[in-house]
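S.,

As promised, the thiamine diphosphate run. Input:
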Amino acid sequence: MTGSQFPREELFAPGHRGCAGCGAAIVARLALKAAGKNTIVANATGCLEVMTTPYPETAWRVPWVHVAFENAAAVASGIEGAVAALKRKKGKYGEEKVNVIAFGGDGGTADIGFQALSGAMERGHDMVYIMYDNEAYMNTGVQRSGSTPFMASTTTSPAGSHIRGENRPKKDMPMIMAAHGIPYVATASISYPEDFMKKVKKACEVNGPAFIQVLQPCTTGWGYPAENTIEMGRLAVETGVWPLFEIENGEFKLNYRPLKRKPIEEYLKVQKRYRHLKPEDISVIQKTIDMKCDEYGL
Ligand SMILES: Cc1ncc(C[n+]2csc(CCOP(=O)(O)OP(=O)(O)O)c2C)c(N)n1
Ligand code: SF4
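Predicted complex:
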C-alpha cells in the first residue's frame, strides 16, 4: 500500500492546542489514518492528551479514553479484553477487527508506564502501543526521561560548565520490547509517513501485542524553528541517530539505509538542547552513533 492509497478521511481534527510545528499531532494524525475508524484509543497524560482535549473540545474522531500518566497499556489491555468479551456476545460487535491503540509519551512509556506496558506485552494482548518519543517530559516543562539522549540539555539535566547535559545513554526501548517475545516491534519517524503508516497498519493486523516507537521532534523542547519539524526528523534518520527497522517474530529488518550517512553535527547544531556541545563532545556522540549503526548494518 502506498501513501496515496491511505484514506483521505481525517480522524484527527486540526485546530488542537499543540505548539506550531508539534510532531505529536503528526503522530496521531498519521496513526489514525493508517488504523482507520474501527479504533479505540487510550491516551496517557502528556502533551498529546492535553493539547487535543481542552474541555469540552476534542480533536479525536474515534472513541478516546484519557488515562493516567502511568497506565495507558493497562487500560488498553482492559479495553481489548472488553471488546473480545462483547464480540462473544452476539450482536455487540460484528466480525470487523477493532484496533485498540495506546499512545504514551516517552516519560509515560519508558519510565512511569513501563510496568503496565511490560505486563500488557507479556500477557499477549491484541493491542498496539505507540510510544511518541519527544525525548523528555515536555508537558511539564522539558524534564529528562529515560529516553533523553546522551548530552541533551533539559531542565533536570541542564548543561553548564561541568555538566554536559544528560549523562546517561537513551534507553533502548525497541530491544527491551523485543525481549518480551512479542510478534511486532518497529521504530518509525513522522518524517517518513508512508513507512510509519505501513507499520501502524501492520501492527493493527498482527494477532497479539505490537509496539512502535516513533521519534517525534518537539519544537519547544528541542529548540528549533517550528517550520523545521519534518527536517529534524529526516536529519535524525539520515545521520543514523534514529534507524528505521522492524523486528517481526524475532527477525530484524532494516527499512531504510541512507546513501551516505550525514555527520551527526548536522543534526546537533540546529537544536538548542545541544548548543553547549564542544567539538570533542560531538566526536564522542559520533562514535557512539557509528557503533550503533555498525550493529544495525547501517
Ligand atoms: C503520577 C503522575 N506523576 C506526574 C504527573 C505530571 N505529569 C503530567 S504529564 C507529565 C509529563 C509527560 O511526559 P511524557 O510522557 O514524555 O509526554 P509529553 O508531555 O512529552 O508528551 C507529567 C510529569 C502526573 N500526571 N501523574
Ligand atoms: S511542547 Fe513539544 S510535544 Fe508538547 S505540544 Fe509543544 S511541540 Fe508538541
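The domain at 23-296 is CATH 3.40.50.970 (Rossmann fold). The pocket of iron/sulfur cluster (ligand 2) is lined by residues 18-19, 22, 24, 47, 51, 134, 138, 218-221 (CB under 6 Å).

- D.
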